[in-house]
Amino acid sequence: MIFFPTMRPATAVPAAGLEGRLTLRNGCLWIGNYLALWPSGSTLDTRDGAVIIRDAAGQSVASLGALIRAGGAAATEPELAQFISRTVPEECRSGLYFRAYTITALAQ
pLDDT of 29-58, one tens digit each? Predict the structure, then answer.
């Protein structure tokens, strides 16, 4: 099972950016070295062995191995409970978390 935390709906969206490759390590999805917290309404599609992130409208926004740009902000471990309702598994804890409100695939 892949840990896929989605955030609660936001009223304001931070404007920091992060670019990195979408990877799967220890059952966790990372953008570079950051554990990603995905936009509200996002879903994870793992049919046919693929790993695809879909937005709230069901459109594919990123797939495993893609270079992506995420718009949002970094978060610290103590802040996580403000944004997600799930506990981050031990194998996903790095101290580096990114609240990704927008996702753009740059290249595969």
Answer: 999 999 999 999 999 999 888 999 999 999
